[in-house]
Every structure is written in structure tokens, then in C-alpha cells.
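Subject: Sanity check before I submit

Could someone independently write out the C-alpha cells for this chain? I want to compare against mine line by line before I put it in a report. The sequence has 448 residues.
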Amino acid sequence: MKLWEKGFSVDAAIERFTVGKDRELDILLAPFDILGSMAHAIMLESAGLLGQEELSSLLHALRELYDFASGPDFVIGEGVEDIHSQVELMLTRRLGDTGKKIHTGRSRNDQVLLDLKLFTRERIRELTMKAESLADELLAKSEQYKDVLMPGYTHLQVAMPSSFGLWFGAYAESLVDDLLFLQAAFRIVNQNPLGSAAGYGSSLPLDRKMTTRLLGFEQMNYNVVYAQMGRGKMERTVAYALANLAATLSKFAFDVCLYMSQNFNFVSLPEELTTGSSIMPHKKNPDVFELVRGHCNKIQGLPCEVTLISNNLPSGYFRDMQVMKEVFLPAFEELSSCLGITLYAIQNIRVNRNILDEKKYDHLFTVEEVNKLVMKGMPFRDAYREVGRRVMEGEFVPDRSVEHTHEGSIGNLCLNEIRLKKEEVVKSFHFKGYQSAVEKLLNTSLRG
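---
Independent answer below. Compare away.
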């Protein structure tokens, strides 16, 4: 079934190519397509385009479809082009002419816009919850190991004292900024495109404010041409936010891989969280973090892929946009998996508490010595030269006691401040607003 069928057959090779992976990927959009149809049906009835009995039967059938589509057995049938066609076909088989009315005032263009926004909105919520859990665990590890010193590096050269408190806490705060970026993307997503039809509106008396409210959108994309132009822009904006999160995970994964090597020996994982070698019996490899790094580096390419697919298109709808789904939709599960496994690994990570006992780290404390001379009244440049002389002549004896007090330093990690910043960002997503609207819509369909 095709929503655009006019009584002629399309060449089989053309059909296979143009359908592409829609049947496979649209399964992810199925519950959201049905939610959109529920809101659209309620609006059509209020506009006099459906009768009350028709609305009641549509809502009842759509709710049953929603429950079915949320399970593992829902499929898009062979010969059915996409999820929009599948839902309408199932409604028509069950309700006859009433099922055929569900497409009134809609185009597949604004249907897929809506489906993608509803899908993305929910996936952003899930990623936010996982990123928050990971940030919480990093903050807990920062508190647990706040007094355990480790080397800090610049240019991969031993530089100054750091601590595991600083290291874990740095990535927690990085995630908070990633969530702030994700929140901006969420607000762009959370605007209703339904009613824009093929990008030029409709002569039917559609009530777009009603569907905006029913689906829990913060507001609508008002201009119908811009609603269509937003396809590609929405994906690109979200892709940058996903890439930001991925960059934090990738950088952390690189640190862990480096620090797990015998030359560093800063951290380790239990044997059951590592893998071995087929030839070297001693190996315990950090494959989990190497794969996190690989997946997250791949995700960081997503904005470029989306941009290249949509970059040179003028206003209006073009089939190129179908290709974006193939790179965009799977990215959420890929990043979600990386967040989940990183959390699990961090929960089991072990820290070496005696790293700085080795003589090779003596020079970590040269700046501490310079600052002690400054505190006694020596000008900084003279103190710098004096400690440099001691190092050059082999006279430098490190004092391994470290007293940093300013905000964000070893002795003042500001973990509560980072935690509060994180909580404020997560709270300001206002997920409950759309969740309560969706719940109300589903309950309305049950009454229907």
C-alpha cells in the first residue's frame, strides 16, 4: 500500500530503491505515528471533519494499535511503503471508510516531521536520564577519591599534582554542559509541525493550537514553509548535541585506556570487565572503553553526515531527507548503549592510591615549591628561577603535601555546586509537561 497510489504500478527496482530502509527504521517511529494520529483525529472531530462515533472508533482502534506497536511483534507488511501507510491500512481494514479519513488535512511530509520530533523528544529524555546517572556516579567517585593524588599532564609531560577527585569531577561537569547543549536542541525539537501538510498548509479549518496542546509541545512551528525547512535543521541541531555528549565519553574512554596501561597503572578494571588476547596469555584489555571511544568518535561525525545530506537543498520537501533517518535514528541507541556501559564500568573501576610514590613524579611538585617561596615574599620570577636551578643541579627535594583552597582545585572540588548546576539543567527540560499530555491523550483514547 502507498498513500500516493493512483492506479498504476511502479517498477520493482525503483520501488525497492525508493523505499530503502523505511520499513526497517519506521518501526522505531510506530508508537509516535499513532500518537500523532490520535491528536489529529480529535482535532478533526472538533473541526467538524469527523463525527463523534467515527472519532470514538478511531481512538479505540488507535489505542489498540499503540499497545501493539509498542511491543516486539509489530511489523510493516511486505508491499507497505512506510509506517504511515501501515497504520492507515490497518485502520481501513478494521474501520472501512472511517479509517480512510485519518489522513484528512495531513501529508506524509508533516506526518514524518511529527513522528521524528516525538521520537527525538522521547529519546532525548532517555539520554538525559542516563547522562545524569553517569554524572552522579562520577561525582560520587570524585568524592570517594578526592584525597588520592595523581599526576597532571601538559603535552603528555609530567606537570603538576592532580587528583582522582579532580579527574572524575571534571567529566561530571563536562556532562552538565553537554546536557545544557542538549536542552537547547530539545527546545527546537519540542515544537509542533503538524498541520503544515506538504509545506504549504491546508484549506481545511485545522486547529494547530489544539494538536500542539494535545501532544504536549511547548509551542508550534508557526510558518508552514519553515516547518518543512526545519527537516534537516532539527536533526543537525540534535546531532551536534549528541556529538558533544559523545566527545566527553570518548575523551574519558581515552584517559581510561591510557591509565590502564602498565606504563601508567593509575586505574584497573576487574578481570571480568576486560578481554584477553588469542596469543598473549597475560593480556587484560580495556576493550569496553576502546569500543566506547570508537562508537563515540563515529557519533561525532553525525553532524557532518546530516549537513552533507541536507546542505544544498532549497525550501520544500525532497526525498533526500529520507536518507537522514538511516544515520539519525540509530545514533540514539548507539549513544545510549555507550552511556550505560560507561556507567557500569565506572561503578567497578579501581584506583591506584600510591601512584606518586615513584621518584619519576618528583618534579610534579616544583610549582608548589615556587608558590611557597612566593608566599614568603620572593618575587615570582626569582622563585621560578631558584626552583629551576635546584632541578637542574639535582638539589630539588619535593614536598609532597599539597594545599589548594580555591574553588575547583584539589582541596575545594565544588562538588555540591556542580551537582546543583546539573540538577537545575535537568529540571529545566520540563519533561513532565509533555509526558502528562501524552498520558492524557492515551487515556482519552481508552475512553474513546
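---
OP: Matches mine. For the report I'm noting this point. The chain has a mean pLDDT of 92.
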